[in-house]
Amino acid sequence: MDAIIMAGGFGSRLGMGEKPIVELLGKPLISYVIDALENTEDIGKIYVAVSPATPTTGSVVKNRYNDKVKVIDTMGGNYVADMVYAVKTAGITEPVLVLMSDIPLLNPKLIKHVIEEYEKCETPAMSVFSPIYVCKGLGIRPDTVFNWNGKLIVPAGINVLDGKDVEKEQAYVSLILEDIELALNVNTVDDLQKCKEMLVEKNEALLTQNNV
Questions:
Q1: Does residue 153 sit in helix, strand or coil?
Q2: Range of the domain at 75
Q3: Model confidence at 204, in pLDDT bands (50, 70, 90)?
Q4: Counts for the chain of helices (H) and strands (E), in that order
Q5: Is residue 34 very low, low, confident or very high in pLDDT (cuts 50, 70, 90)?
Q6: Using one digit for the tens of pLDDT, what is the confidence trace for 66-123?
Q7: Region of 66 on the Ramachandran plot (φ > 0 left; ψ -120 to 50 alpha; else beta)
Q8: What is the number of domains present in the chain?
Q9: Is 99 helix (H, G, I), strand (E, B) or coil?
Q10: Cα(182)–Cα(180) distance, rounded to whole angstroms?
Q11: Contact 40, 64 (CB under 8 A)
Q12: Positive or negative, the Cα torsion across 203, 176, 94, 168?
């Protein structure tokens, strides 16, 4: 399955310039997402959709990944229109993974799980959500909350769509996952600091495990 990373937003809440290339432990946010995709067996080609608001992001991706990751220049200003344009420009006519650039805790295991769930769902599209209690447990105040069968859920910024019908409204299923890695999108400075703390803790745990 091919993947498109949407990286054309202004990132105004974070207030640190182009959000996809804001550094987290010396590495651009978008690189965490790209690297997770590259290390997932189920992922084919990777595209990054940028806009006039994120010109440097395109340059950074090209410099870091050369031809391994293709950059698509969209018009910007409308997420859905930019996504449709990116899918059509990439020539994708099969299911495609569409995700945001601000999910630095994403990992290959979670990506693989999302794809497996999509393959079982028997609908053209699938959207991934986090329960609001997971977000609250991390001290996050999400901008967007949906009521799903009486439960409050928050978009994780990950969707699967049928590329051949990308211009049409597609029936979708909601995948609710409790993994904190999906709940932590970087929208504020506090979110960035929380990601830093969790990554440092994870790295220290790995070092301890390797030294045992």
A1: strand
A2: 2-211
A3: confident
A4: 7, 10
A5: very high
A6: 889 999 999 998 999 999 999 999 999 999 999 999 999 999 999 999 999 999 999 9
A7: left
A8: 1
A9: strand
A10: 5
A11: no
A12: negative
